[in-house]
Write a structure and sequence with these properties.
- The protein has two helices and four strands, in the order αββαββ.
- The protein has 99 residues and is an alpha+beta fold.
- The chain has a four-stranded antiparallel β-sheet with strand order 2-1-3-4.
- A hairpin with a 4-residue loop joins strand 3 and strand 4.
- The longest helix has 14 residues.
- The chain is globular.
């Protein structure tokens, strides 16, 4: 099953995922996390994990929240969203954890 950006590539290593979070932060985008049951992850509606992390520039904090979301929702797919406040749209959306 394919789920957006990078979904046709092999799974990323933790270091590669970190680089993607660094990219989101470096662009000034606001990171946010969403999750969904594995069987429903192809739909348009995902569950927001807490509020978007407006202004967050610490990659470790973003990754720690992604891990907390994964642990709190076993069996769910977790994805990272990067909100571009200048263009007022999504800059990126990619899956960080598969179920």
């Amino acid at each position: 099953m394919k789920r957006g950006t990078f979904s046709y590539l092999p799974p990323m290593t933790p270091q590669q995922l970190r680089k993607q979070v660094e990219y989101v932060v470096a662009r000034g985008w606001s990171p946010a996390l969403e999750h969904s049951e594995a069987g429903r992850a192809t739909g348009s509606y995902w569950i927001m994990w807490k509020l978007p992390m407006f202004g967050e520039r610490n990659v470790d904090r973003v990754l720690a929240e992604a891990e907390a979301c994964r642990k709190a929702n076993p069996g769910h797919v977790v994805r990272l969203i990067g909100y571009d406040s200048v263009r007022q749209t999504l800059g990126t959306a990619l899956v960080l954890h598969h179920a």
